[in-house]
Amino acid sequence: MKSEKAPSIEAATKTLHAALAILKENGGEMKSSDVMKLIPQRVELTEWEKSRYENRPYERWKAILSFYSIDASKAGFLIKKRGNWYLTPEGSEAVASGPDKLFEKVREGYKSWRLANPKVVTSGDELEESNGIEVAEEKDTAITLDDIQGQALDGIKAYLDSRNPYEFQDICAALLRGMGYYTPFVAPRGRDGGIDIIAYRDPLGTVTPRIRLQVKHRDSKATGAEVHQLLGLLRNDGDVGIFISTGGFTPDAVSASRNSRIHIELIDEERFIRLWQDFYPKMMDEDKALLPLVPVYLLAPSE
User: Fold this and answer.
1) How far apart are CA 121 and CA 170, in angstroms?
2) Which of 129, 211, 212, 288 has a CA positioned 20 to 30 A from the CA of residue 76?
3) Which pTM does this prediction carry?
4) Alpha carbons 18 and 49: distance in angstroms, whole number
């Protein structure tokens, strides 16, 4: 009689390789939910893999991939943080070896980590030992947490995308105030070009750094030319630039920032959200109301 072990390992082998390959093809960083959406386009899933575990809300292949993605993180091939997956250089190299070899390397890397951390119980062994029918409770918590974080991020992004550029500009100014800055200037509606927000460490702007901030919302990626334009507006000693773009940045924009003689910090939408979450407790109630959050505390798995 054929055991359930074979199909679970088969599913893990092909979906884990597909996930890391997708990350590699997309710059090494994606939301876990976006990776999951692309998996069915890359591999042929069996009816068993597409079926659901009893009393569980996700398909078997998703549970198995999430299960073994934790092993991949222990092997040093993948970093999982706040609903995002990041491919490490070791993971990028391992992808080229193919699905079977990659899975072997993941298991070997996990076993090495397990030997170094014998008291931590979290491994693909639980899935194999249970013949692929049940996901271990601790791993199930990790999967659920990853899903919740991804859904929360999607919800915040949808809210930000529904704001017009001037409303988002006000949200950016609120973040700076939550970080301890004064914002004596926020560009009025109808104004086109130039600096959108000026922020100081003290009310009079006598303490450096003095921030000149440019905002680009619901638009294409910010370009190198736009970063150079911001650089041209930094005229005084102690000025630094911040460019917030919810559409992200082109490679030449990143290069322009790195090579700038004056510090220019680039903040994309996901980093903006992380900063908002970090400084939210320090904000005034009227600023919190611009992007209201509700903290939810879950028991973290022992990864």
Assistant:
1) 46
2) 129
3) 0.65
4) 15
